[in-house]
Write a structure and sequence with these properties.
This protein is elongated. The longest helix has 18 residues. 32% of the residues lie in helices and 18% in strands. Strand 3, helix 1 and strand 4 form a beta-alpha-beta unit. The protein has two domains: 236 residues, TIM Barrel (Alpha-Beta Barrel), CATH 3.20.20.70; 68 residues, Alpha-Beta Complex (Type Iii Antifreeze Protein Isoform Hplc 12). It has 360 residues and is of the alpha/beta class.
Length: 360
């Protein structure tokens, strides 16, 4: 079992890992539409829906790309949200980024509501900025999973790192994990994800067993970052052992850049409640009775009974002793030891066998 890691929050230490409650992250992304009040609503809505954390994306357009209209700087892809298409990366990020001046106030609000506040930086300058806020951990987005200078910068903070590895090859993941660990990261979790941004996910491409392989290969905590619509798959991922679930969140019925694959508060709450109920059902490792009903019903097990009248001095045999219900007599493991022994007194049929009835 991989050892959980601890993040330090204003509310106290929080463990993330196997056999801990799933760490459920609401991703704000660009769903605020650069309206501060909407960002506040998202934070409040995430807390009300049961999220453990709110995650931002910290960048300015120049963190991501350059302002250039050459053909390869335009967003395409037939399955990508329509809101993304027909513009350059720079133009898209100008409309999508979260202003830095919001961060401190949103952090204060989130922590006041009991949420862990953290972010995904996209450049070295973004990391420096987040360090001024003393965020407790860092997320690396799938697209930046192979940005080695960024990985080294994040690692230099000494804080836990959650790394999404969507569409990274195994060799790329190995190199990125080695980079982080060589640069000082001790607490690391890897998130499997499918970065197709579909409103209706295609289950045949989900491959949740990849989480188990990541855990076995890298001895890290694992989770699932869901970049598609619906709640069924993240619920299943949590039941399969994901210690972190990340899901995009928006105000109910809002139209935003990422609305195609985001959840409103009702769906997010339903996801959280199902995951929490499943955690109760999965429980811990336990053997034996737990409830009064089990204790009572335990008495319906088998034990050794006299099934024919026996006279004093008569031997116990397979004809006069049987293993039957209920569990009022000697345990059945003593059956062979009883056979051939003599009765200490007359015994009526239907009497549970006990040691005082057996001559030693």
């Amino acid at each position: 079992m991989v050892k959980p890691f601890i993040i330090q929050t204003p509310a106290g230490p929080r463990k993330i890992g196997s056999h801990e409650p799933c760490f459920i992250v609401a991703e704000m992304s660009a769903n605020h539409k650069q309206d501060y009040n909407r960002a506040v609503e998202i934070v409040r809505g995430a807390a009300a829906a049961g999220a453990d954390a709110i995650k931002l994306q910290t960048y300015v357009p120049d963190s991501m790309t350059i302002d250039c209209n050459k053909q390869w700087f335009y967003v395409g892809g037939k399955d990508n949200p329509e809101a993304w298409k027909g513009q350059t990366f720079y133009e898209l990020y100008q409309k999508a980024y979260t202003p830095r001046e919001w961060h401190a106030d949103l952090k204060k609000l989130a922590e006041g509501l009991g949420l862990v506040f953290f972010s995904a930086p996209f450049s070295i300058a973004d990391v420096d900025f987040l360090e001024t806020l003393d965020t407790p951990l860092y997320k690396i987005a799938s697209y930046e999973a192979t940005d080695i200078p960024l990985l080294k910068k994040v690692a230099s903070t000494g804080k836990p790192v959650i790394l999404s590895v969507g569409f990274a090859t195994l060799e790329e993941i190995e190199f990125s994990v080695k980079t982080l660990r060589d640069a000082g990261v001790k607490d690391l979790a890897l998130l499997h994800c499918v970065t197709s941004y579909a409103h209706t996910p295609e289950p045949e491409f989900t491959n949740l067993r990849t989480m188990h392989d990541l855990q076995n290969k890298f001895q890290t905590g694992v989770g699932f970052s869901d970049n598609n619509g619906g709640i069924e798959i993240p619920i299943l991922a949590a039941a399969m052992g994901a210690s972190i679930i990340e899901k995009h969140f928006l105000i109910e019925s809002d139209e935003a850049f990422d609305s195609q694959f985001s959840l409103g508060s009702d769906d997010f709450k339903a996801m959280v409640e199902t995951i929490r109920r499943n955690e109760i059902i999965m429980g811990t490792i336990h053997y034996g009775c737990q409830t009064p009903a089990e204790e009572y019903n335990r008495g319906f097990r088998r034990s050794l009974f006299v099934v024919k009248d026996i006279k004093q001095g008569e031997q116990f045999t397979v004809e006069n002793v049987r293993s039957i219900r209920p569990a009022c007599g000697l345990e059945t493991k003593f059956y062979d030891a009883v056979l051939g022994k003599q009765a200490t007194q007359d015994i009526e049929r239907g009497t549970p066998l006990s040691w005082n009835l057996i001559k030693h």
